[in-house]
Design brief:
Two copies of one chain form a homodimer.
Chain A lengths: L5 H8 L3 H8 L7 H13 L6 H8 L4 E6 L5 H16 L3 E6 L4 H13 L4 E5 L5 H8 L5 E4 L9 E5 L1 H14 L5 E4 L6 H16 L9 E2 L5 H12 L7 E4 L2 H13 L9 E3 L16 E3 L2 H16 L8 E3 L2 E3 L12
Helix pairs in contact in A: 1-2, 1-3, 2-3, 5-12, 8-9, 10-11
Chain A binds a DNA duplex (16 and 16 nucleotides) through α2 and α4.
Chain lengths: ~325, ~325
DNA sequence: CTGAAAGCGCTTACAG
DNA sequence: CTGAAAGCGCTTACAG
């Protein structure tokens, strides 16, 4: 049994399908009685307007495309929750796609979004390089990048304030009395990493602490990278007493590696993460970290996207502050040297 | 600048738009030269077919709707990753919606899916009651429930084998020498909970161990529920030496509460979870748990949905085996009593 | 207040 | 092998 169309309703109501269309869309032209009669019939017949037919004429789909590297990444998941909530409130739907960081997938995803004529696109914490930026802009719709480098003036962005948050995280360690503080980063060259590292170095400098190149080691954003990086830090002749990590995942891996070598956290080594994933409160020990308001950032991304869609030409890029959450992975250093 | 349509290509190629349509869709009717000429022009003009226009005539959208309670739930996120991967491989897109366990959201989501004419729907680990089942079936498309009760014969389901997996988990504790084993469940009445509890009791019975009603306490699927439940367990005059938890989240909360009261895990108390979330390896201590192949279950859900869509009337409900993963939250009990 | 007509961008019988 | 025509389910000027 096919779905009822506007024509079916028209027949039942003895009016033209134009009238049905108007009545259902709340046009003030139609008489109140006609409207309620038509609405009643539509309700009874389980009528649902066809979004496809409507968007064919309005050339809007009320859907937004969201690309994440992987929805299984807890950061992305929280952001997407915020996106979907905000979208839903405004009667937008979200088309979700994982790029898996594969260029061919990224391409395919954008094609799918183009064919489905999404009204706008949000890209979350992927590494949007120049090539992908080019591909994305072919979709000719507003694009909001979340925690991404913003390579082009055509793309709006929502970013955590990496510099200030990292400064505060490092400052926390310094205030505790640490003088030998290391930084485990992401893969080299990613903008967030550069900015977080910048905040770390600025805090060191402001406190008059020397910057030691051997205390700066790259990771890969995951626990394995954190573990490996911690390994090379622990091979140093002079160990750090504290480590600021690019993100929580990195910190989890780093803590695991340090514990495995018999170091107590925070007694021997303090650790700070970045993100405040849900699990940061359950790690061993609960992690001191910088909270990113992930859901709010997701919401903000859709709000700004919608403004862009509405033709607002002056939507400023958003810079969102982080918040230091002190838990049990940080403490004063053992000996004051 | 508007997107090129089939008519624009037709004009450029000096053919009718019917020919363009056929050439682009690979119809064998069109001569090879014409096909490649048209394809070339389409490529140059950045042509993308309009999914809306196509689905208006084919009445298929190549879109599947996915409802989760919350995408921020790591279980749901892993499942959705599997769903999206499998869908993408078959050139389907996924429309994602969070119900937040709110009836009005559930209703709205289904309406959105209906208007967008999704080809099928997957509902993940929500509590699909009779009312929602009714609402869902109004969409008149195939529905696959993942780890949900299957209230109607019209809905296909993919389920973890709760009974066997819980039996194995409890059996592991028994083999370790535990005789006083508690179970922290989900909210009362959920089917997964009933089945997991069933496996627990069957293992007890098979080992000749008495079932103690006071060792059976409900949670709520989250860490807070696990913590509360652990609290009431620890108030008992005779403590259990091991606790099997409904899921990992519950176990995390339970472990936290036990540790907070000075109990060593696993020295004083063994804990087993269910799910094997990514973080189970990073908890304090790393959690012994039952692994659900979440991504594969997601993939299976779309495979079966697509079979249903293809008109296959005999797609059997899937029962997926879990796998016990032994980590460090379980050990033999202290004193053999 | 209501209707007839055109058109959004496709696919697909029906003719040739 | 190709084209003209109809139609999918809507919205929206244009008339009345």
């Amino acid at each position: 049994m096919k779905r009822a169309s506007i024509k079916d309703i028209a027949r039942l109501a003895n009016v033209s399908h134009s009238t049905v269309s108007r009545a259902l869309s709340g046009s003030p032209l139609i008489s109140p009685e006609t409207v309620s009669r038509i609405r009643q019939i539509a309700l009874e017949s389980g009528y649902r307007p066809s979004a496809a037919a409507r968007s064919l004429v309005t050339s809007r789909t009320s859907t937004i495309g969201v690309v994440v590297t992987s929805i299984a990444d807890p950061f992305a998941a929280e952001v997407v929750l915020g996106i979907e909530d905000a979208a839903n409130e405004r009667d937008y739907s979200v088309l979700l796609a994982n790029s898996n960081a594969l260029p061919e997938r990224e391409l395919k995803v954008v094609h799918a979004f183009e064919e489905r004529r999404v009204d706008g696109i949000i890209v979350t914490s992927s590494r949007v390089g120049a090539v992908y930026a080019e591909v994305l802009s072919q979709a000719r719709v507003p694009i909001v990048l979340l925690n991404n480098q913003h390579p082009s003036e055509f793309m709006h962005s929502v970013m955590i304030d990496n510099f200030a948050a990292s400064f505060a995280a490092t400052r926390h360690l310094i205030d505790l009395g640490h003088k030998r503080i290391a930084y485990i980063g992401d893969r080299f060259g990613c903008q967030s990493d550069t900015e977080r590292c910048g905040g770390y170095r600025a805090a060191l400098e402001q406190a008059g602490l020397p910057f030691r190149p051997e205390f700066l080691v790259p990771g890969n954003g995951g626990p394995d990278g954190g573990a490996t990086a911690m390994g090379s830090l622990l091979a140093l002749p002079n160990l750090p007493t504290a480590v600021f990590c690019y993100n929580d995942m990195t910190a989890f891996g780093a803590m695991g590696a340090a514990s495995a070598r018999g170091l107590g956290i925070p007694s021997d080594l303090s650790i700070v993460g970045f993100d405040d994933l849900f699990f940061a409160q359950f790690s061993a020990p609960p992690l001191t970290t910088v909270r990113q308001p992930m859901r709010d950032m997701g919401r903000l991304a859709v709000e700004n996207l919608l403004k862009l869609l509405a033709g607002d030409s002056a939507v400023p890029n958003a810079n969102v502050p982080g918040e230091l959450i002190v838990r049990h992975s940080t403490a004063p250093p053992k000996e004051t040297n």
